[in-house]
Write a sequence for this structure.
């Protein structure tokens, strides 16, 4: 333990995103996790809740009110907790990364519309940078407060970004986003819908209109038009993972190389975005299964030049790139670490 | 075995659709299956290939060329076989139900466009009735030749039919059909893409533009307009099942009861279509898992009256309603049996 | 509804075994289910809890105290409920089949040892016949009270029975029973262990010594010796199903045909037991997946004549043959129906 | 690339074990993989076969005959290939780790008995050290040739080792090893048994007597007695993983702390063995799912002091600790690297 390592705390470390964060930070050479909180499991070892961390840490959960000052504080609590006590948390740490939905939108009215209640700390909204490093990298480098990202929003944004940025997608059309998601998206609290006999093997449409993450996507793309993004979510048999299929119509007759150019120009130098667009082979499109445990997002497309029919694709791990991975990446940028530190695990197969 | 039972043969009984057909027909009180063919497994007992039929039949596979005349002949061979020898098969049986794609389209040009080769028996195309009993029930009652249905086409057609028939969906928009399908759709031949370590747990986009079943759907809806149906298929972790999510825009402000009226008017009296559209509960939308082994198709929708955004849903078993179930239902109509005979199994849960 | 159909009630019809019972009885030509109870869901339609029964019944749950007299009453309540109020239930119906563990053991001391509390109605214990029709068929024909069976006990008993009955297995050895079970065994109440993200894909040893069902097995085999049956249970990724592997040592040098003789002699004429013992092919041993939804139990073995090492196998559906299926089979015998009525569904594949 | 990094080659790098080896070695700071072979995929990029390595290496497969000399050579070819050409491979590299079964047994007669053919290079057998570092660590430190380990053998050995070494298990009893394994154990060649519709959701007993790995286990324990190890394998729904349940009878009345002492004494200081033996909680026994992608083996037990009935447990990843992980660990010891280098990934959850 070199003295120059940053002290990090995780408020809300017993949930799935908090556990992933802890796993990543335990392997981070520049950070020492010194405190983790859980109201329900206070006093227990981390591995009691996160069995994969057995032998990796002897940290025990403490209650939130016992948090001491630290260099960087991650908030991974249920939505609403962070905004309710943001002043207290800000007093504890110079840098904060909040994984909840509390500080993703900059505009209080937009927040109220999406979440159906007034924000408790609207003054804080513009102080947070939306924590998607691939789009906001330079802002994050200078930030002290970063929000997390919505996992479904991230998959949607990354699927679309190269062609939105390249102005290839005209805004005056429905942007149909059909998302297939795993069971960990619903968190770690048992319920009838998560009960294994009921959840196993399903293809269950469950959020077909009015997804809250649409606001994040539209905010992100605001400089390029007001896109009619329509996210529909279906639960499938998978624990970790999001797969976004974005159905749009592009101009007819585009050459493939032009699409390649937009993708390459957009993602060049981005260490965690891979273009997956092969002509043959089994894995020629992005697949979330390959990305479990990683901070990678794979993007790709299929385009029919005769009709203009197009499906844009993105796959990622909802707990990785869609939550804890991006949060650590933000911290790396905010704290002057190499962007990829502790995030290079590339996944396993088969 | 009463003498008045019809003699039935199944050409191509070792595949998944053929096996499902055999399972259903073995329990049919008005039919006796007297011959089943398989080139690869000729001489073996049916249960060698279909282990669930152990103890239910002592039939053995014979080669196709050994087929004897029978009352009704089911063809469940690889696409192309039926059209190549339809004259021979027609000489063997008065009534034929062909489960392949060979006789689903009425028009040879449309066939050639969809399947990229000329049809070998174009004169036969108009003699087959498209075997979807919910739409072609009266035609089938008088038919002697029925085609099978495409499983993905069936899910798409049934998801849309109530609102197409009711002229609620305007044709001048893309009809985005996002289909999630199980592994049995690809048949019973092992391949790298079906290898369990590679196929397990995937969300794998694999046919995103140019799906051949689009031709079936457009043909079916031809009387109501030329719909721009865009089917995109994703493989998910499931053996049996198709779930279709059809994304369209409806006029704003429709009252829910109007949609209910269209669905009720369309599906009333149809024994195998269930409207699943609940306000709450876990299973408020159609789910394919509930339908494994059944001839049911569940249909539903979600509609946002403020924006007109709509997702129409249909779930079914690709081997049941999407193949063998509909084929038996056709036979029931063609042969004067009660439409539901041998098809009332309602599925298991959990 | 012909007047001669028996009126049946199900007390505890919202659980998984109760739901399976309801499904089976709805298709039984000699029975009309007239009342189903659930404390939690009183007032709701059956299909609200059992979504596969949508369209099959308009029954609603009532509370237990509203039960009216009926011809046959099934009790499928949590263990302990039946014994606490057996006098009341016996006053309601002439014939009772109880699926719980309350009346499986004949001896109150044995019950107290296995379940760690005194039985509330010990006088009733000898009045119940242990409801495994393959072993107690003639007793059941004349019975008015039948207990249900333990699913793991049933798999163990059926795996062993032919060789216990044939006195091929010597009692003076440990009988190691390694059971692999699905998630529905734990019932329909969500818990951390059944939460999909935690339960998915596991191989989780959870009950390795001291399984309560051992008492059922030993009672069943009591006439042949006091067998040291050691059941160990492991949860695997499956919803329905039990697979029992019984490891024993047999005398060396037995000819295969002798084992076949014992199996054939034991199971001949038993409609729901299939001997699965093939020399080749993919499905040469019993597999629970093939049996989901059925009342079948498949039995088999592997024996090494050089060493005497032997594994006896049984697979079944814990909710079917291991619970509701056997219960209906008991009722068929008790009420004079054909033994196989409503139980002939043979399962689906793939 | 510092000049002092070792050059490594992998012969047979397109299989699952070879792919895992490649993944691990690409992240090893002391090794540079310079050549990978595949007859079938020669000329293709590694990521064509191992999609998770996209972006991680630009290596292409070469045919075996193109192998050039290197510092360390891994052989991960089908069983039989290594022994057929071991002289040639030994001429290419000073150090060899062979993952196949070719050099695990020291005795040619034992090999012939287990594998039913004569070994092609019996003189080489005693030159290889059995590559299980937890038991043969000091031998491996000085070794130049190491065999790989059998995945099922490793799980069995590690489950038993603490109590065999401690002489707690008496040899004069059957040692029943019930193994549950994932689909990757069967390799990457599609077959009817690995076809997803047929393999999905199974509990399939497939190798119940006469497992070849028994010879490895008995050889390993030879110094402590001739144990009657009886391995029986069942395929379950899982891709990676082995779970061994070893059923034995221990002396009655042992205090728990004595078992703890044996485990602690045996495994203390072993970085990849974790004792998992909790009194409560969800994960109180070893579970393979937690170990996918790792080099960890978790061991535990359940013991009933009244009867002496005992189940010993071990879980591991068949491709990790059971193959490529142990191979890299061997190389670390053989080449003077820190034993844990490139092997510290601890797995993900959920």
């Amino acid at each position: 333990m070199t003295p120059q390592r940053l002290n990090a705390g995780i408020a809300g470390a017993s949930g799935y995103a908090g556990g992933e964060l802890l796993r990543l930070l335990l392997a981070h050479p520049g950070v020492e996790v010194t405190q983790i909180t859980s109201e329900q499991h206070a006093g227990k070892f981390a591995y009691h809740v996160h069995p994969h961390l057995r032998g990796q840490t002897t940290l025990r959960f403490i209650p939130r009110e016992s948090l001491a000052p630290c260099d960087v504080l991650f908030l991974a609590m249920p939505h609403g907790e962070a905004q309710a006590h943001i002043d207290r948390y800000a007093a504890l740490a110079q840098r904060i990364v909040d994984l909840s939905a509390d500080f993703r939108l900059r505009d209080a009215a937009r927040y109220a519309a999406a979440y159906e209640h007034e924000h408790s700390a609207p003054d804080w909204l513009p102080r947070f940078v939306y924590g998607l490093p691939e789009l906001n990298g330079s802002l994050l480098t200078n930030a002290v407060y970063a929000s997390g990202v919505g996992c479904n929003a991230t998959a949607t944004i990354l699927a679309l970004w190269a062609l939105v940025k390249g102005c290839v997608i005209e805004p005056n059309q429905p942007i149909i986003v059909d998302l297939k998601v795993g069971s960990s998206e619903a968190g770690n609290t048992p319920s009838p819908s998560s009960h294994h006999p009921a959840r196993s093997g399903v293809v269950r449409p469950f959020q077909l209109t009015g997804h809250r993450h649409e606001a994040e996507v539209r905010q992100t793309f605001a400089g390029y038009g007001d896109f009619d993004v329509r996210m529909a979510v279906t639960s499938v048999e998978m624990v970790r993972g999001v797969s976004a299929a974005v159905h749009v119509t592009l101009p007819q007759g585009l050459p493939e190389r032009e699409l390649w150019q937009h993708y390459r120009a957009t993602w060049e130098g981005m260490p965690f975005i891979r273009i997956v667009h092969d002509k043959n082979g089994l894995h020629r499109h992005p697949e979330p299964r390959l990305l479990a445990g990683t901070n990678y997002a794979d993007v790709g497309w299929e385009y029919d030049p005769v009709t203009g029919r197009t499906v844009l694709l993105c796959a990622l791990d909802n707990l990785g790139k869609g939550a804890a991975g991006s949060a650590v990446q933000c911290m790396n940028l905010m704290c002057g670490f190499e962007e990829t530190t502790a995030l290079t695990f590339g996944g396993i197969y088969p």
Observations:
- Chain B has a mean pLDDT of 97.
- The longest strand of chain B covers residues 228-236.
